[in-house]
Amino acid sequence: MNINELKLWTALVTPMQSDGSVDFAGLENIVRQQEAAGNGILLLGSTGEGLALDQEEKKSVVSFVSGMNPDIGVMVGVGGFNLKQQQQWIETCNHLNIDAFLLVSPLYSKPGPVGMEAWFRSLLDVSGKPCMLYNIPGRTGVKIPPSVIQALSGHPNMWSIKEASGSKTDYNTFRQTTPEIPIFSGDDLMLPVFAEFGCSGLVSVASNIWPQATARYVDLSLARETSSFGEVWTKAVKALFSASNPIPAKVLLVEKGWIEHPDLRLPLTTRELKDKNILLEADKSILNWYSNLKIKD
């Protein structure tokens, strides 16, 4: 799999049974949905509740998907604050049938540029796969400085950036500092904005629910053909974040019959979702949008 050809990666949810265990039947189903759409998948990111699973559970998820031999790119999330544990996790996954890693800034500690560079370099050094660095200050409390990306740009395992600060200015700074490094939007709604400045693609939550429609949304955004969007995508994506991610996504996947249970690991709970109807309306509007595009084609 040539991951450089993929423009869309789905930050996949991790389906769970009502007792909290991983629902592997549901996992297989949603992986096949993404495979049918040709989308890459990211396992065990924040959407996949990676930090809520223990090491054996995480290994079981990656091993299961690896054993499916999906005909799409598979990326695995690496996140936490214990360096040795993250290195061991990478070394475990190096031997599985995956294509890349997503490396998140260390959580909670708020390191400066020197510590941030050393952290990422230590992970890149043990990786046997290309790595995407994840800038998500809303979750980690600190931005990845552009100087860190620049210092790591020559590393053989440094592949790309997932930019989810929500800032066009931050995106442009990365683009100008290291123009040779591909940048993916980590925010569905920011893709059309970032596409104006040479974005390479999207790591998406919405594609869990709308795998084919989101793939089309990405193609149109990157081609800067956004006249059909209107408020459709804005309203739909806002509905998907009407409670903490991935609560709405899991609820809607159950409504679509793709997974059996909407259960999550605490502190996430479906009790936070106040109105399921806005999700049903979002699903209807995106499917109508996609159907109309196909008719015009």
Keywords:
297 residues, TIM Barrel, eight-stranded parallel β-barrel
* End-to-end Cα distance: 29 Å
Write the CATH architecture name. Alpha-Beta Barrel
Main β-sheet, in a few words?
A: 8 strands, parallel, barrel
Mean pLDDT: 95
Q: Order of strands in the sheet with the most strands?
A: 1-2-3-4-5-6-7-8
Number of strands: 8
Number of helices: 12
Unreliable residue stretches: none
Question: How would you characterize the overall build of this protein?
Answer:
By secondary structure, this protein is an alpha/beta fold. It has one domain: TIM Barrel (Alpha-Beta Barrel), CATH 3.20.20. It has helices at 24-37, 55-68, 83-94, 113-126, 137-140, 146-152, 168-177, 191-195, 211-222, 232-240, 247-255, 277-296; strands spanning 8-11, 40-43, 74-78, 100-104, 131-135, 158-163, 183-185, 201-204. The chain has an eight-stranded parallel beta barrel with strand order 1-2-3-4-5-6-7-8, surrounded by six helices. It is globular, with a radius of gyration of 18 Å. The two termini are 29 Å apart. The mean pLDDT is 95.
